[in-house]
C-alpha cells in the first residue's frame, strides 16, 4: 500500500530488520529522548515475565510427563526447544550483523556486552541460551543497560550520549519485537492448537476450574500474539528514518487486526485437528512450503539480513548466504501459517488480498468439515455453533480493523492530512 525508494543502503535492511543509525541525526524521532523510570521498570518487568513464561512452558510439558502422556510431553518439549533454537540463532545473527555494521562504519565497539560475545563465540552458552529460552532476555538486558546509561548521561547533561544510548535502546527494542513475534508464532501458536485440540477431544460438556484456567491462559496467549505483531510494526516504523511513526489509534487497530485474525486462524486449525490431526498437519506443511516459495520469489529483505557486510554490496550472494536465506525464509513461512508478515517494503494490497482470501477459504472449509464429521456428542456441546460464529466474526472484524487502519489511520494518511492542513493555512 505504499512505495519506497529501493536504492541499496548498506545500513538499512528491507523491512524485516531496520538498523537505526546511532551516529547520525534522525528525522522522525520523539523529541523527548530521555528515559523515564517507567521505561526502566517495564524493561525489568519484561525480563521477569520472560523467565516466568519459560517456567510455565516447562511446567506444561512436565505435567504431560507426570500423567503419562509421553507423546504430548515430547511434542511440548519440541515446541519449546525448536523455536528457542531458531530465536537464539536469529539473535546471534543480529549481534553479528550489528558488529559488522559498527566495524564497517568505524563506530566504537567497546560497549559490546559480554553476553553478546558469548552468544557469538561460546557453544556452551549458545546451548544454555536455547535450553532456557534466553534470546529475548539477552536483548532485554541490553535494552535495560542502554536505558540506564541514557539516564546517567541525562544526569550529567551529556545530551549527545543520552541520545546515542536512547537510539541503541530503540534498536534493542526492535530486535526484541521481532524475537517476540518468532516466539509467539513458532512456539505459542502451535502450543495453543495442541491445547485447544485436546480440550475439544476430551471436553465433558461441563465447566470446571481446570478448563477456566486453560481458557484464561489461551486468551492471554492470543492477546500476547496481537500485541507482539502491533509492537513489531511500531518498532519497524521507529527504526525507519524516512517514515512517520504509528499513532496510538493506529497501534490499537494493528492489535485488533492481528488479534482477531489469529483467533480465527488458530481456532479453525484446532477444530479440524481435533478430528483429523494427521491430515491437518499435512495441509499445514503444504501451506508452509507454499508460503516459503512465495517469500523466496521476492527475497531481498531476507537476503539482506543473511548477507555478510564485509563483502562488496554489488556482488551476488554467496552459496552460504543463499542457504541461510532459504532457511530464514522457511522460518518466516511457518509464521505465515498463522499471520502475514511482510518481508519486502512496497505495495501490499494484492499480497494481503491473496493471503487473507486464502486464509478465509481455509478457515471456512475447516469449520464446515468439522461440523459435518465431528462426533454426535460434539454436536450437542455449547461450543458447536459458537466456534463457527467466532471464527467468521473474528476474521471479519480483523479485516475491518486492517482496512480502517490503512484507509484512515496509517501514518502516511495522517501525514498527508497534516500537510494539507498546513498548506490550507
TrEMBL record:
PANTHER family from the UniProt entry: XK-RELATED PROTEIN
Organism: Lasius platythorax
Membrane topology, from the record: Multi-pass membrane protein
InterPro entries with a match to the protein in the record: XK-rel, XK-related_scramblase
Name of the protein this chain belongs to: XK-related protein
Main subcellular location: membrane
This protein's GO CC annotations: plasma membrane
GO terms for biological process, alphabetical: apoptotic process involved in development; engulfment of apoptotic cell; phosphatidylserine exposure on apoptotic cell surface
Record carries keyword Cell wall biogenesis/degradation: no
UniProt keyword Transmembrane, yes or no: yes
Residues that span the membrane, as ranges: 41-66, 72-90, 211-230, 251-279, 285-303, 323-341, 353-370, 382-406
Top-level taxon of origin: Eukaryota
UniProt keyword annotations, A-Z: Cell membrane, Membrane, Transmembrane, Transmembrane helix
Cellular localisation: Cell membrane; Membrane
Protein family membership: Belongs to the XK family.
